[in-house]
């Protein structure tokens, strides 16, 4: 049985969700960002308990097909950004189409209607969150970060960062 889980966006999330399934003694055959496949069917009572435990830790079971689709899109984007290997000529629409095998305009409309932000804006917001994370870890300089995340230049990254956060990358670091 496949169960779609909202807000599973990293390996720590996978571990947390795995622990909940283990605690409830629901056997898992596979677990990925946003999706858990169980070895057998899960009864209605167990599903209710599962959803309750998931909600208490910031997750929840998704039953609506459009919400499942949106979660898949978010997970694709987050996973791509977490790889820190975005080409300068990266095209989001082509990436989404290849990941979901669906019409981009329909996906884009669905996402915008439900999230109140376009796919492109969401992608940029997630990249900026990754820039913040990388800046705070101080493992890479701005040039290296801009290359990892597909920016054409450090200036482009800095301008986008300031537009979204209100701070330059340097001001952001100095405020921490």
Please outline the helices and strands.
Blueprint: E1 2-6, H1 11-23, E2 28-32, E3 35-38, H2 44-56, E4 60-62, H3 65-82, H4 92-100, H5 104-115, H6 119-137, H7 142-148, H8 154-165, H9 169-174
Antiparallel strand pairs: 1-3, 1-4, 2-3
Concise account of the structure shown:
This protein has 176 residues and is an alpha+beta fold.
The CATH topology name of the largest domain reads Arc Repressor Mutant, subunit A
Radius of gyration, taken over Cα atoms and rounded to an integer in Å:
18 Å
The CATH level-2 architecture of the largest domain is identified as: Orthogonal Bundle
Give the class-level CATH name of the largest domain. Answer: Mainly Alpha
Which of globular, elongated, flat, extended, rod-shaped describes the shape? Answer: globular
**What oligomeric state do the depicted chains represent?**
single chain
Overall pLDDT level: 94
Percentage of β-strand residues = 5-15%
- Please summarize the sheet with the most strands: 4 strands, antiparallel
């Amino acid at each position: 049985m496949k169960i779609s889980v909202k807000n599973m966006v990293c390996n720590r999330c996978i571990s947390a969700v795995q622990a909940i399934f283990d605690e409830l003694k629901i056997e898992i055959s596979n677990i990925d960002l946003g999706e858990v496949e169980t070895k057998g069917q899960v009864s209605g009572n167990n599903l209710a308990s599962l959803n309750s435990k998931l909600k208490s830790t910031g997750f929840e079971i998704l039953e609506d097909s459009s919400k499942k689709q949106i979660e898949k899109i978010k997970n694709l984007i987050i996973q791509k950004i977490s790889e820190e290997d975005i080409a300068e000529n990266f095209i989001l629409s082509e990436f989404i189409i290849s990941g979901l095998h669906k019409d981009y305009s329909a996906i884009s409309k669905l996402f915008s209607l439900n999230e109140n932000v376009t796919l492109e804006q969401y992608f940029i917001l997630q990249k900026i969150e990754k820039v913040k994370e990388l800046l705070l870890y101080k493992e890479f300089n701005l040039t290296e970060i801009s290359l990892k995340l597909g920016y054409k230049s450090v200036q482009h990254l800095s301008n986008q960062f300031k537009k979204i956060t209100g701070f330059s990358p340097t001001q952001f670091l100095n405020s921490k």
